[in-house]
Amino acid sequence: MNTLRYGRITWISVLIAGIVSGGLGAIRSSTRASADDAKPTDGPAQKFFAKHCQSCHRGEKPKGDFLIDSLSLDFADKENRLRWLAVLKQVKAGTMPPKGKPRPPAQEAQALADWISGRAAATESTAQGRVVLRRLNRAEYANTVRDLLGVSVDLED
């Protein structure tokens, strides 16, 4: 009986360890920047920038010393993320594109704003640091195993 109980506990422990390690691997791979050096013209902002930004902010003498090609899709880089947030601020305030230039439709501007905000928020939340996993006590462990697997485990040794 003891051998069966310890065998079951060992099996459950291995199962839980596998689930946890698989989950951590998935988290690590999802937070890794997939396009570190990609330019914004490769992403969802391509049409918006082509229509409204590249005529002034590209080439040898970009207006406002803001070169659109200097932005990358790597939101994990804090300096780059701050530049994207500056773009967001200009678009939301309506100062870019400037008066006299064709204004983007509200839907396009909102789509760009949502995309920048979403990417920046997701990256900031992952950059906050690691979440510390705490250990379960015997009662919590037994309750978790019972809830997940439907197996009652007696851990009162």
Question: Top keywords for this entry?
Answer:
single chain; 157 residues; mainly alpha; 2 domains; 5 helices; 55% helix; rod-shaped
Describe the structure.
The protein is mostly helical. The chain has two domains: 2-32 and 132-149, no CATH class; 40-126. Helix content is 55%, strand content 0%. The chain contains five helices and no strands. Helix 3 (78-93) runs antiparallel to helix 4 (106-126).
The number of domains? 2
Give the CA-CA distance, first to last residue.
14 Å
Principal-axes geometry comes out as: rod-shaped
N to C succession of SSEs: HHHHH
What would you report as the Rg, rounded to the nearest angstrom?
Answer: 25 Å
Major β-sheet profile = none
Uncertain stretches of 5 or more adjacent residues = 31-37
What is the mean pLDDT?
Answer: 76
Number of helical regions: 5
Number of strands: 0
Share of helix among residues? 40-55%
Q: Determine the strand fraction and express it as a percent band.
A: under 5%
Structural class: mainly alpha
Which secondary structure elements does this structure contain, and how are they paired or packed?
Elements: H1 2-31, H2 46-52, H3 78-93, H4 106-126, H5 138-149
Helix pairs in contact: 3-4
